[in-house]
Structure formats: C-alpha cells, structure tokens
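Translate structure to sequence.
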C-alpha cells in the first residue's frame, strides 16, 4: 500500500498541514490543491488513489455541489473522504448528493478533529482501498479471471421467458467478486475494453450454443462500450465469431447506452448500421439518462429501447416516474421499437407496466443476474413447460 497517492483539496492552511503530515506518516504520497476549479482542470493528469475534498471552498471558486456534480458526471470511482468545517447538516446533504451520483464516499469528517482521529480514519480506509490498476486488469484478461452472469427477461403480455442480458463480473482467484461498475471505465480508458468484450462475446456465444442444445430458445443481449463504436471492423469480427459457432445473428442483441450514441464518436452510425445489416439486433440502453435528440433516435438503427431502471424502481408510488415512463413508451412505440423496462423489483411495478403496454420486463422481481448453474436452477423452479414464468417462487 506504500506510495498510494492522496489528493487533498482544501483552502485552509491549517487543515492542509494536519492532513499532509498524517498522510505521509501513513505511507501516502499527498499532493495539495487549494481550489476546486484547479482540481477540475488538472484532474485528468492526476488520477489519485484517494481524495479528501474539503467542501468549504473559497468564494469565487466553484462550490461543493458543483464539484460533486463534476465527479458524478465523470463517473469517478476514486474513493473520496468528504470534509467540512461547517455544520453537520450541510455535510450530510452533500454526502447524500454524492451518493445519488454514485460517488465512492468512504468517510465524512467534520473539522476540527485531531491528527490522531484523522490517522485512525485513514488507517481504516487503507484496508478497503483496493485500487485496481491496469496491470491487474490486463492479467485478468489474459488469465480469463472473469465470469458471466445472466439476467432473465420476460415478455410482459405472455409472461414467456424470451432472453437474458449478459453481465460480466471479475473474479480474482480467492478474492471477492468485482462488479463491472468498478472496472469498465478503467477497461475503456486503457484500451482493454476490446479484448475484454471479445472474451464476453465468445463466452456468451458458447453459452448460447449450450442453451440451444438444452432446447432453450433464448436471445442474448451483450453490452457494448461506446469505445467500440468507432471501430469500423468490429461488426466483421463479431459476425465471424457467430458464423464460426453456427449461430444466427438474430439471436444476438447488442446494448449500447443512450449517452454512448449521443456522444457520437466517429463512425458510430456506420458501426451500428453494419451490425444491423449483418442481422444482429440493437438496443438503446439506459434510455432517459442521455440526451438523444429525436432526429438521432429516428436515424439510429435500433430495434429496442430499455427504459433506465431509475424510472422503473419505485414507479408504483411515484407519479412523476409514471408520466415519464408513459411518455417514453409512447415515443418508443411510435418509432416502432420494442420497449424493455429494467429494474422491475415488485409485483405492483410489473402490473403497472402491463397496464401501460410495456413489452418486456427485467429486474430483481423476475430474477437477479445469475451464474449459468444458478440460471438452470431458476429455470427449473420458475419456468413452466410452456416457457411461462411462474412468479413468487425463488431459487
Ligand atoms: P446495465 O447494462 O444497465 O445493466 C443492468 C444493471 O442493473 C446490472 O448491474 C443489473 O444487475 C442491475 N439490475 C438488474 N435488475 C435490477 C433491479 O431490479 N434493481 C436494481 N437495483 N438493479 C438491477 P451490473 O451487473 O452491476 O452491471 C452494471 C453495468 O455494467 C451494466 O449496466 C453495464 O453498463 C455494465 N456492464 C456489465 N457487463 C458489461 C460488459 O460485458 N461490457 C460492458 N461494456 N459493460 C458491461
Ligand atoms: Ca445493459
Ligand atoms: Ca441499463
């Protein structure tokens, strides 16, 4: 753990001295910034292992909310300790905002505190500061230390089991599973996303063959990073892999997030079109969280739209979400797309989605994502002979 870098953002000299001293004593390499604007502009070159953010920034600088918004938008996963010399309530609210933005907050600290108190907090964080680096990820790819989980989808009208979404997990030998949100952005930044995705595609194609041999007529949906959408040769490679295994591209769908397509990397339209022309299906993922224009939606060759789970979770009790989902269903159906709701967690949500004429459901109510052996058990217990889903029985 020695030598991990610790970024300290504070406008207070007193706090800065205390933190720096304790950090060095604990084997961190601290570096100091005094302004939030300075941090944002230089952040891409810094990439610390841990950050301490004093949210009482100077007047004229950005404020704490703007700072957290920035890291939220950048999907920053670096562990963060929040600090304030203000009152507890403000720190509590800021912590709440940070959590909503899925930031990795590991501690909240109200100043004044002693050097000893801070060192204690720091020593606690050292244990869960498992910083993933590119070499670990590269060796995981080389040694295939990944597993795939499959999350079932059902057609709402018929309740039939129609397919699964493929979700990757990293399983370092003898250690806990690492979830994709903790390593996909690193894979994207380092260029390892291509070999990783090729592994996901090969493995899920093999599993699809296995499903077929067990008379399971399922579609699989594989997630594609926006980084792959600028690689014009990617569709050929995928088709080659499908042909090699004698798979029909119609059984394979690729999910691409709405934000990936609205960022419009070079070639994105060509790559998506080439995938469609080769017979694969395309789904626009996390719909409602990006900024697609109607023109883009019309132009991009999607077959399916997945309503982001943030609108579906709790839909039964939130009128605003019901209105948003209704509008998305109307828009999607008008464009001729199949509409999928993800994040369906209870019976009330499913019956509401049935009333609203949504096409497909995915979520913890039906099943969480499962390794293939567990998926077989779920199938035996929860799917009838005619392939309809039997609710209320869990694995
Ligand atoms: P996603 O594509 O939006 O996948 C759905 C996520 O929601 C999954 O998280 C799934 O386990 C979770 N989920 C499903 N049903 C429910 C529910 O009812 N309630 C709640 N609260 N959550 C639910 P997971 O597996 O952690 O995946 C996170 C993200 O990582 C995925 O979001 C996807 O963007 C990315 N990802 C996963 N596998 C791959 C991959 O092979 N390649 C790429 N590029 N990205 C991947
Ligand atoms: Ca997805
Ligand atoms: Ca999604």
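Result:
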């Amino acid at each position: 753990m020695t030598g991990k870098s610790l970024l300290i953002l504070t406008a207070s000299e007193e706090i800065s001295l205390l933190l720096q001293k304790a950090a060095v004593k604990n084997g961190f390499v601290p570096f100091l910034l005094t302004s939030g604007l300075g941090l944002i502009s230089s952040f891409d070159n810094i990439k610390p292992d841990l950050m301490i953010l004093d949210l009482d920034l100077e007047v004229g600088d950005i404020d704490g909310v703007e700072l957290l918004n920035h890291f939220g938008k950048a999907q920053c996963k670096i562990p963060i300790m929040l600090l304030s010399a203000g009152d507890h309530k403000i720190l509590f609210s800021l912590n709440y905002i940070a959590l909503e933005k899925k930031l990795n907050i590991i501690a909240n600290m109200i100043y004044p505190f002693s050097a000893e108190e801070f060192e204690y907090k720091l020593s606690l964080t050292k244990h869960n500061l498992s910083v993933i680096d590119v070499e670990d990820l590269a060796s995981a790819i080389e040694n295939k230390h990944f597993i795939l989980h499959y999350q079932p989808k059902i057609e709402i009208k018929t309740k039939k089991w129609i397919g699964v979404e493929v979700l990757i997990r990293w399983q370092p030998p003898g250690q806990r599973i690492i979830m994709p949100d903790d390593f996909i952005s690193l894979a994207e930044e380092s260029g390892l996303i291509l070999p990783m995705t090729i592994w996901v595609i090969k493995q899920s194609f093999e599993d699809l063959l296995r499903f077929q041999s067990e008379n399971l007529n399922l579609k699989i949906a594989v997630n594609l990073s926006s980084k792959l959408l600028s690689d014009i040769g990617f569709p050929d490679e995928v088709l080659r892999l499908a042909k090699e295994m004698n798979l029909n591209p119609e059984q394979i769908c690729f999910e691409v997030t709405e934000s990936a397509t609205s960022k419009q990397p070079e070639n994105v339209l060509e790559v998506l079109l080439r995938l469609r022309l080769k017979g694969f299906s395309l789904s626009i993922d996390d719909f409602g969280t990006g900024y697609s224009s109607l023109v883009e939606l019309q132009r991009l060759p999607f077959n399916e739209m997945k309503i982001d789970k943030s609108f579906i979770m709790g839909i039964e009790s939130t009128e605003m979400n019901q209105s948003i989902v209704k509008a998305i269903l109307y828009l999607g159906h008008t464009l001729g797309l199949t509409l999928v709701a993800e994040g369906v967690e209870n019976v009330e949500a499913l019956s509401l989605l049935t009333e609203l004429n949504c096409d497909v459901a995915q979520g913890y109510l039906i099943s969480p994502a499962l390794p293939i052996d567990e998926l077989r058990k779920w199938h035996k217990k929860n799917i009838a002979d005619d392939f309809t889903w039997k609710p209320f029985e869990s694995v």
